[in-house]
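Before a computer can learn anything about folding, someone has to put a protein's shape into writing. The three-dimensional part falls to structure tokens, numbers that each stand for a local backbone shape. The protein below has been through that process, and both of its lines are reproduced in full.
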Amino acid sequence: MIAIIDYGAGNLNSVKNAFDFLGEESVIVSTPEAIDNANRIVLPGVGSFGFMMESLEKKKLIEPIKRAIARGVPFFGICLGLQILFEESEESKGVKGFGIFKGKVIKFQNGKVPQIGWNRITSKNEFFEPGYAYFVNSYYILPENKNIITTTTDYFGEFASSIQYKNITAVQFHPEKSGEFGIEIFRRWLKC
């Protein structure tokens, strides 16, 4: 079962619709037990870094998610679901992220903020094809370990738009809003 985590915001139904289209069983969940029993986990995120961490904490979901990742359950993070894997964000000073990866989340300094719309991703591995994906973001990740970066995107300068490490795949863009390009990313993740 694919567990799509509901922390109180996010494009949950759009993500579920994508898996329904692919013929995969997925369930929107909000309990620690459901996460403990999941074969795969998707964490879609919209809103602010601080709100997401506070909501996950209130629902007692942080430790179950981290446990699942530690035991090798395939994890797919979307937008904020990518950002909270890091230590901190300029968006919410003093709020700690999961800290799975060293690094922080910083705000775009140029261009129209937030970046909203289609932008090209350039791939650094075979999992991702180059193409256009849909973004809505004011912040982007700055990982200390550059080897985990799998795609980059140019928005008044290059930034990391996805990462992969072991069982973790996480993207800044929204595959569930990116048409066939996004569906193909989900399809490849399901085959991993």
User: Anything to note?
Assistant: The chain has a mean pLDDT of 96.
